[in-house]
Amino acid sequence: MPMHLIVGPTGHIRRTGPTLEKLRPDKPFAGRCFLEAFELRRPRGVACIDDLGRAAGTRLSLRMRDYKSVPLKGLAAPLARQNEILINLSFGIAAVEAVGMFELNSADFSPTDLTIEMLYLVEAKEAVMSESRDLNRRLQGAKIAAEEQAFTDTLTGLKNRRAMDMILQRYTANGAKFGLMHLDLDHFKEVNDTLGHAAGDLVLQQAAQIFVHETREADTVIRFGGDEFVLLFDRLTDMKKLTKIAKRILARLQEPIRYQGKPCRISGSIGITMSDDYPCPDPDQMLIDADMALYASKKAGRAQHTFVRDAGGIGQSAADVAAAPAGRG
């Protein structure tokens, strides 16, 4: 009984168990009056040690006067020797809080004490909860990774068309201003035909790096499909700034990309539109218009950029675009 105490006929505590001693190492219970050290809550009406003796066999509910937040349970039994009373205490359902408060462990309790079983259950529950939290973190990480993969082009690491649709919807729903560039690589088919698809893949990857380097962190670069890309510029609708970006991109694309010692020569054609050009920007119409402007760049000799407003206005129909002469690659 590591939490027992023996009370003498004068009501003073004569001896305590080792666990009880750990609760107040700075103020030992031995020598103190039991009713001054403990507040007896049940049974009521216990005012002296004789009353406590008459309550022998009755379950006690009490708490330390120095730690009233820690309830205790007990059972008193009379000892024939020297008219003493043995009181065996336990924490009851407050065991978990008490273990943390007083830095106790299983060695501070009797192996048969139900507290041990409670602590084992709490420990097992904590282990299960910890494992559950870890599993949830891993599942959340896997979910994020899967979602990221679903919105990423595997070859270039850029966002894909699915991601672009979501970003454009967010822009238009929030009324945000943005610029949109539709870019097609010139002479890309020739690279594939002469040097092979591996060379073509390298060109796409190098071009993707150029686009990312020449845009801001808030902007989004999308591989639209094949050798086509879309660049979205967050809160940027200034024609002069967009022109500078387009020129830098076109200049870098004309730098030869070497594959197995051989140069891959490409350029780019760009069509540009801006949300400011529309009373109510519609992503589909903006893409159609930017594509029309891209065709205008192709027809004008490639390796240049064209704004939609300079290529015949805003709101070209899909039929108009379809009727435009082919000229990509």
Give the C-alpha Rg: 40 Å
Mean pLDDT: 83
CATH class of the largest domain: Alpha Beta
Largest sheet composition: 6 strands, antiparallel
CATH level 4 superfamily of the largest domain: Reverse transcriptase/Diguanylate cyclase domain
Count, helices:
11
Share in helix: 40-55%
Strand order of the largest sheet: 2-1-6-5-4-3
Distance between the termini: 89 Å
> In the residues, how many domains can be counted?
2
Beta-strand share of residues? 15-25%
Uncertain residue ranges: none
Structural class: alpha+beta
The CATH architecture of the largest domain: 2-Layer Sandwich
Report on the structure:
With about 325 residues, this protein is an alpha+beta fold. The protein is about 40% helix and about 20% strand. The protein has helices at about 20-25, 35, 50-55, 95-100, 115-150, 160-175, 190-195, 195-215, 240-255, 285-300, 320-325, and strands spanning about 5, 15, 40, 60-65, 70-80, 85-90, 180-185, 220-225, 230-235, 255-260, 260-265, 265-275, 305. Helix 7 packs antiparallel against helix 8. The model has no long low-confidence stretch (mean pLDDT about 85).
